[in-house]
Design goal:
Blueprint: H1 6-17, H2 24-34, H3 41-45, H4 52-67, H5 71-94, H6 100-113, H7 116-119, H8 127-141, H9 147-153, H10 160-170, H11 179-198, H12 202-222, H13 227-251, H14 261-273
Helix pairs in contact: 1-2, 2-5, 4-5, 10-12, 11-12, 13-14
Length: 275
């Protein structure tokens, strides 16, 4: 824990209470006070793992603000992500391993090193070459000597569709030659799912469904589509359609949960024909 004396702690609190506008350094100080003796019991108890899920949720809330083009929400959610970064760095500071200044130093050094076309003599004229050079430098830094090393370096905790498409992109030379070949593979995988389902083999169904989804990401890559974004859009479209069906059903004095799929399809067909 932090080792403020009681007088030091009160002086810092008084300083913060008197601020008209806060800085990044003030955020760092607030987190230190929250985790110091006499601070917030909840904050003092937290570990990297206990707030791991919070980091994930805050990141997705930033994505929501970006997708909805809401600058007010984006400003707020970026602050929440910043808090997560400071909080994790503070935990490490208390263990005397590193602090937020080390984090800032490392990212600055990384950016300078990976932009030799800006901070060095290398000449690069387009974004595609920038990305290739970035990947090359990163591979050297991380000692990724083989393509397998690069594939394993893609974070396993990424959303599965996103990870699959990234893996496929890096191993693109080990891929279907044509889009038509992917269509053929999809039909093959669907048949294998059906066969496993008919056999009642749950483990085989799981495996074959995985193969089918992986093949779908290959098709998306061939067609220049982001599979994660495509599924995101499709899910939103489904919710929008469901809302229209539910509203129509409610207007008839009925409940969607008490209706058959055939009845709901008829309602949807009626909505489509009235457009």
């Amino acid at each position: 824990m932090n080792t403020f004396t009681e007088n030091e702690r009160q002086e810092k609190i008084n300083y913060l209470l008197g601020c008209q506008r806060y800085s990044f350094e003030d955020l760092v100080l607030i987190v230190q006070i929250l985790r110091s003796k006499g601070g917030c019991p909840w904050d003092m108890e937290q570990t990297h793992k206990s707030i791991r899920r919070d980091f994930i949720e805050e990141t997705y809330e930033v994505i929501e603000a970006i997708d909805t083009e809401d600058p007010v929400l984006l400003r707020e959610e970026l602050g929440d992500v910043m808090l997560q970064v400071v909080f994790h760095a503070q935990i490490e500071r208390e263990e005397e391993r590193f602090d937020i200044e080390d984090v800032a130093n490392d990212i600055c050094a990384k950016l300078i090193h990976r932009h030799p076309h800006v901070f060095g003599e290398l000449k690069i004229d387009n974004s595609a070459d920038v990305l290739k050079n970035w990947d090359k430098i990163k591979g050297v830094e991380k000692h990724r000597n083989s393509l397998t090393d690069k594939l394993r370096s893609i974070p396993p905790m990424l959303p599965a569709l996103m990870r699959a498409q990234k893996v496929g992109k890096k191993a693109s030379f080990f891929d279907f030659e044509t889009t038509e070949a992917v269509y053929d593979k999809l039909n093959e995988e669907i048949a294998e799912v059906r066969e496993a389902a008919r056999a009642g083999d749950h483990d085989a169904v799981m495996e074959e469904m995985g193969d089918l989804l992986l093949t779908v990401t290959s098709l998306a890559r061939k067609l220049g589509v982001d599979s994660e974004q495509a599924l995101y859009n499709a899910t939103n479209k489904f919710i929008d359609r469901f809302e229209k069906v539910e509203n129509a059903v409610i207007s008839q004095g009925k409940n969607v949960e008490n209706m058959t799929m055939t009845e709901l399809d008829e309602v949807w067909d009626g909505i489509k024909h009235t457009k």
